[in-house]
Amino acid sequence: MPSSRHEISKARLPLWVAGFVGLACVAILALSGWREWESRQVDLTNAEVDMANLAGSLTQHAEDTFDLADTILTGMVDRMEVGGTSPAAVAKIHTFLQSRKYNRNRIRGIFVYDETGRWLATTEEVDPAGLNNSDRDYFQRHRTSSERATLIGRPVKSRSGGQWIITASRRFNHPDGSFAGVVLASIDVAYFMQFYRHFDIGPNGAISLLNADGIMLARSRDDEGAYVGRDMSKSPLFRTLHDRPVASVYYFKSPLDGLQRLSFYQLSSRYPFLVLATKAQDDVLASWRQQAFVRMAIVTGLTLSLALLGLYLVRYLSQRQRMAAALVAKEADFRLLAEQCSDVVMRIGMDECILYASPSCARIFGWDPAKLLGRPALAGINPEDRPRVEQAIAALKSGEAEEARIIYRTPHREKTEIWVETALRVTRSSASNEIDGVVAISRDMTEQKDLQDKLATLATSDGLTGIANRRHFDERLAEEWARAKRDGTPLSLLLVDVDHFKKFNDQYGHQAGDACLRSLARILAAQIRRPADLAARYGGEEFALLLPNTDADGCVEVAERVREALRDLGMLHALNPPSKLVTVSLGGATNIPAQATADDSLVAAADRALYAAKENGRDRLVMSGQVLAWPGAKSA
Length: 636
What we know:
By secondary structure, the chain is α+β, with helices and mostly antiparallel strands. The chain is built from 16 helices and 23 strands. The protein has a 7-stranded mixed β-sheet with strand order 18-19-17-20-21-22-23, sandwiched between helices. Strands 1, 2, 3, 4, 5 and 6 form a 6-stranded antiparallel β-sheet that branches. A 5-stranded antiparallel β-sheet has the order 8-7-11-10-9. A hairpin with a 4-residue loop joins β12 and β13 (354-357).
């Protein structure tokens, strides 16, 4: 009986093993599916963060645009209410508008209408006589409402140019408070469309600017203006907007093109509009789908093979399960920073001393407003920024300008220096109309300035190696070429290419290839001995060293230092005979720019030299018609 039971158990063992292996295979497939799903969620989360950052930046950009329009409108309303609408005053206003050179990319035009809608003055080169805008919605709203704030209107077709525009308007009154007319600034819808084209959000991504009522103001990928003015108030987002936060992730199926979209919307805290930055969900997940298909195919094939290997495979699968159980999925959290702070208002006299400071000084500058009275307004401003501030205030005091906007650094009582943006406007005596001081409205720009610096760094550095990228190299080459042409000094360029790098990747893998490129980048960066020198990744495994005010001998010396540092590093490269170490080919060029030459001639010369270095056996420098190999030197 014991023997019989043993035989039965032994007979059942294959079934038990097969069952266990089957369960293990199912577990592997399920775990792989879970991991792929987590990978999918990570891609979606990263896209959400990208859209959140983009929506925040574009909201700030739109607010800045409307701030510019509001500032212009405020000044024009003051002029109209002070000067009146007499023929002489109107002629003066019209001449003033025609003489001003506004940024026509942002502010398309400025218009003044009387209480009947008749055109009084404009920046457009048209005769305003006989033109009337009393039928416009913004005009009727100002005529029936005593509200003095700026009104952001629906997009309309311009009567002066025929293009789509967004209107920003203000009412101005007669001395008795009755309606006197409207001042309007038009913003070209195409300005936003062109600006939005600068952002890479995928082949089907879209950026939309809508007012709070759901009217489409501008949309990227809308060259014909087909979507401008479309009413989106019936869409799910706007039907539930009052129950939603001011900024949030939003998934939806677009009513415009039928695509399932991942988006982030941001409501402006200062104006009735929102920015909706979207990516097509298929675009976001395209790379994940391709990689997941490959990974799942591999896992499925391995699982089928594992099912035939018995107990060894069971152990292997058990080990994989233990390893997989130790993995923890991580998701990136994002945080939206919104700037909600009151501005500091100061009144500055002609002696540049503070006459009045608002209570916000305590929060922004750390100073009690009462203690600032009578003190010089420019005290403590960073010495590098002070000349610009003094120049702006001098221009205001002399009457050369009515207003100015400057950004500068100033000390905080409890912190280090902070960045401040200040809008300045002259004040005039009511009796003599002479300039009697300046009003300054300031806000803390430190966080925004830091963000701009970080974005500038990201835009000019290579993500893998950390040194300058191709774009930054091209900019610096143009600058140094112009400087060398002006000063008559030599300019040298070294192009460096890793020998047989593709074979290195094939032999050691792409991670080792990336490590090799980072090591070479560190060697090149170590050769930067002067502020003007630049090490950059030119493309792939090719690097560049830009050496201003360096002759050919100096260029060769730098190349020798690069070669020595790489040799001392001793990275193995079995497929790079005869040294079987990682080596580089270098092409150098030196030029004293002349009026008839362009900066690309230096790159072309260095590129030809690099090609010659490769053709002559690699692991050498070609410089000005000669080939320098190590050890020793040979003529080309």
